[in-house]
Structure formats: C-alpha cells, structure tokens
C-alpha cells in the first residue's frame, strides 16, 4: 500500500517544491508568451532581416533538447561571469525553450487567417499594424488558444527539468525526499499527483475552450 | 482618373501583364473581360497596389501608385474594392464591418460612421441586417454588405474583382442591381466579370484581355456585335452559345 505518512512528514518540502513549480511555470508562461509573440511577429514580418532572426531562433531552440537550453543558462552564463541561481537559470531556460513553440503556434494561427482578410483591410486604407490589430489578431487568437493551452501544459511538465539543476521545484524535492527516506515509488506517485493538480484543470480548460471556440466563427 | 502607361508585371518568369496602356475617365464604367488567367484581376489589383507593377507608370487620381513617396494608405481611401469572396470580417457585425475603416482611417465619429453605414445599407437593400454577423447572411447579402463597406469611405473609384463569381445564380441579380444603380449615379467603376448581360447593359467601355495583353477596347455595342479581334470572337462564341 502507499505510505501516506511520508506525505505528511515531508509536507513542507512537497509544498515548497509545489509552490516553486507553480512560480517557475507562471513566470515562464508570461515570459514565453511575450517572447513567443515577438518572434512570431518577426517570422511573418514583411521585413526580411526580422524573418531571419525569427526563423533562426525558432529552428535552433526548438531542435535542441530542453535540458541543454537550461544548461546553457546554468553553466554557460557563469562561464561568462553571470551567475544565476538554479531556479532563475532553469526558469529562463524554460522560458526561452517554450517561446520557440509559442512563436510557431502564434505564427500558424495568424497564417491560418485567409489572405483576403488582410487585403480587404489594407485596401480600405488601414495600415499594416491596424489591419493586424483589428482584423487579423482577433481572429488568430481564436485559432491559437487550444494549441497554446497544450503548450502551457507541456510547460508545466517540462518545469521538472529544474530538478536536475537543483532548482528547488517539485521534482527536486521528490528526489530529495526519496533519497532521505529510501522510499521511491510512493514519493514519485505523490509528485505525479502534485503535477496533476496543475495540469488536469488546464487540460479541462483547454477542452472547454476548444468546444466553445468551435461554436463561434 | 486611372492611367496605365506601358505597365508590365512579372511573377518570377511569368509575364502576367504585357505593355498595358489604359485610360479610364472619371465617371466611366469599364468592364474587363477575358478568359481566366488573362491578367484581368491582376490588372485591377494593381490600381490600389494589392499587386505591384514591375515597370511602366500607373497614375490614379494624379498620384503615382508605385512611387516610393506615395502614401498608399491615403490613396486607398479613395478606392473602394469588392472581392470575389467578399472578405467580410467574420468576427465583426455588419455594422462594424462598415464603420471600421471610416472610424480608424478617416477619423469620423462612431455616430457619424453608423449613420453613413445605415445610409449605404439602405441603399444596397439590407438595412435590417445591421446587427447580423456575415456568416448569418446569404452570399448575395454578404456581397452587398461588402459594397456598402466600400462606399462608406466615399471613394472616387470602385473596383470589382469578379463580384458575382462566388454567388449562387439566384443571388447574382441582386448584386448586379446594386452595381447598376451605382453606375447610373456616376461612380467611376472598373469591373472584372463574366456577366455579359451586365457588361452589355452597363459598361461605357469593354476591355478584352488575353495572355496579359489588352487585345481590344470598344463600346459594348461594337464589341458584342462586331468584335475586331479573332480571339475576342472565339471567346464570345464560347461563352454566349452554350
């Protein structure tokens, strides 16, 4: 049977890890959304050099394992004299990594809007930026919300990479508790449950939004 | 009002428009016909720079369309455009579709823009649809909203790019009626269409294109009764006798 006493005896550690996972996820969520939007706009911009920057970013970051991106911040930056705490380095790595996927999601959403929408808007005298703001983005957001939700679920799960660099997250404390108590299976079951507390509601929310948005438009 | 001087356009190796010379006067209704792929739509889309020309000069209302110093957004205010697939904004109501550009581009007040919108909706015969979304309308109704949207900017020129090609046959008439009314009121119109009845009745001039060239320019009477060009004769015989 599963030993629940571990949950109570090490409750403070579980909670600290959980809380740090929530923080890392939220920070990376906001950061990767902002960064991803910028790179998505770069990728579809009519200005060529911006295209190249956007494409380079997405292709490099997306095709490197997450843990290497995190290592870049954790061991790469100190080599340049910038030392970050494991938590900050891990969250930054997570942000940069997720932003590449968010950028692709947003770009795909914008490009899913028929070309005629931009043409109609521009031919009525709206500027490119106005057309984006009033016509393209409001429609793209509906297309983008469900896949974006999935990216955020991945983000929460991927935050467990912080455990590898002592980022004080749920995974890290899970490892610590199991090493202290020599109980492995039960501890990781609890860790999994804590992740589910975060990801299941997100998943249900995504499903709900998917159904609602399928109705409109 | 609109002058093409030796305009050429290439898409890569494909020569879409070849030495186009065309002059359209204020108040004139010019109907462009020809087989598909002949460059009709491309030519019309050059007028508001939805397509750029490769060489030659294009003047609209005295302004060089392809000049670097031309404020294209300013020029476009004077040119309404109606598309084959309507291109209404699906996330906005009929009223919002029509008032958006007047408010954001011309800077008129919401109230004034709505009054103008209602005036033109009345004119195209669907004032009762103000609060509907485009998907709730038939094709013919959507296209009439698109015309009202163009007119609400009070343009000097209206461009129509196959406005009835995506409509089911029963609703084509209602759109053509609106266009006829507009022509009678003296709007400068350039219309790409396959509706020969409309061309014959409403056009001041027919422009016949094939393979990127203007082959013939004539009044509807001349063109339909006695086309000069062999290619035009073939085209007419194919679409009229079937």
UniProtKB/TrEMBL annotation, chain A:
ABC transmembrane type-1 domain ranges (all copies): 18-206
UniProt xrefs under SUPFAM superfamilies = MetI-like (SSF161098)
Keywords noted in UniProt: Amino-acid transport, Cell membrane, Membrane, Transmembrane, Transmembrane helix, Transport
Recorded hits in Pfam families, A to Z, give:
BPD_transp_1
A single GO CC term for this protein reads: ATP-binding cassette (ABC) transporter complex
Entry keyword Transcription: no
What the entry lists under NCBIfam families is as follows: HEQRo_perm_3TM (TIGR01726)
Assigned protein family: Belongs to the binding-protein-dependent transport system permease family.
| Name of this protein | Amino acid ABC transporter permease
Organism this protein belongs to: Brevibacillus gelatini
From TrEMBL, chain B:
- A Pfam match is ABC_tran
**Could you list the residue ranges that cross the membrane?**
none
Molecular function terms, GO-annotated: ABC-type amino acid transporter activity; ATP binding; ATP hydrolysis activity
Which family is this protein grouped under?
A: Belongs to the ABC transporter superfamily.
State the name under which the record lists this protein. Amino acid ABC transporter ATP-binding protein
Q: Does the keyword Aminoacyl-tRNA synthetase apply?
A: no
- Where in the numbering of this chain does the ABC transporter domain appear? 2-236
Keywords in alphabetical order, please.
ATP-binding, Nucleotide-binding, Transport
| UniProt xrefs under InterPro entries | AAA+_ATPase (IPR003593), ABC_ATPase_HisP-typ (IPR030679), ABC_transporter-like_ATP-bd (IPR003439), ABC_transporter-like_CS (IPR017871), MetN_ABC_transporter-like (IPR050086), P-loop_NTPase (IPR027417)
């Amino acid at each position: 049977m599963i030993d629940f006493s571990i949950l109570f005896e090490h409750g403070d550690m579980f909670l600290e890890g959980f809380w740090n996972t929530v923080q890392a996820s939220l920070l990376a969520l906001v950061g990767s959304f902002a960064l991803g939007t910028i790179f998505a706009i770069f990728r579809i911009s009519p200005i060529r050099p911006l295209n190249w920057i956007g494409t380079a970013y997405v292709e490099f970051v997306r095709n490197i394992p997450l843990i290497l991106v995190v290592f870049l911040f954790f061991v790469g930056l100190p080599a340049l004299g910038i030392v970050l705490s494991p938590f900050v380095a891990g969250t930054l790595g997570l942000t940069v990594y997720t932003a590449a996927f968010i950028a692709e999601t947003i770009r795909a959403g914008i490009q899913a809007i028929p070309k005629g929408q931009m043409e109609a808007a521009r031919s009525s005298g709206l500027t490119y930026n106005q057309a984006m703001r009033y016509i393209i983005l409001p429609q793209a957001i509906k297309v983008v919300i469900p896949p974006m939700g999935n990216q955020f679920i991945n983000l929460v799960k991927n935050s467990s990479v912080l455990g590898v660099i002592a980022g004080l997250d749920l995974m890290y404390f899970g490892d610590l508790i199991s090493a202290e108590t020599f109980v492995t299976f039960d501890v990781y079951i609890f860790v999994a449950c804590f992740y589910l507390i975060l990801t299941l509601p997100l998943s249900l929310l995504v499903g709900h939004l998917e159904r609602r948005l399928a109705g409109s438009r | 009002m609109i002058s093409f001087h030796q305009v050429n356009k290439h898409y890569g190796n494909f020569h879409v428009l070849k030495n186009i010379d065309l002059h359209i006067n204020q108040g004139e209704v010019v109907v462009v016909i020809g087989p598909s792929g002949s460059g009709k739509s491309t030519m019309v889309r050059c007028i508001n720079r939805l397509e750029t020309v490769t060489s030659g000069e294009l003047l609209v209302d005295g302004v060089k369309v392809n000049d670097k110093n031309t404020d294209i957004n300013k020029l476009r205010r004077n040119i309404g455009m109606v598309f084959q697939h309507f291109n209404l904004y699906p996330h906005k109501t009929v009223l919002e579709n029509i008032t958006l550009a007047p408010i954001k581009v011309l800077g008129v007040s919401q109230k004034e823009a709505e009054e103008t919108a209602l005036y033109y909706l009345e004119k195209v015969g669907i004032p009762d649809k103000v609060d509907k979304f485009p998907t709730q309308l038939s094709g013919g109704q959507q296209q009439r909203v698109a015309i009202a949207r163009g007119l609400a900017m009070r343009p000097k020129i209206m461009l129509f790019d196959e406005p009835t090609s995506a409509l089911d046959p029963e609703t084509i008439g209602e759109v053509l009626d609106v266009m006829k009314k507009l022509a009678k009121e003296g709007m400068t119109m350039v219309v790409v269409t396959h509706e020969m009845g409309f061309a014959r009745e409403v056009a001041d001039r027919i422009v016949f294109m094939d393979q990127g060239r203007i082959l013939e320019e004539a009044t509807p009477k001349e063109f339909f009764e006695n086309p000069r060009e062999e290619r035009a004769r073939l085209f007419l015989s194919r679409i009229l006798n079937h």
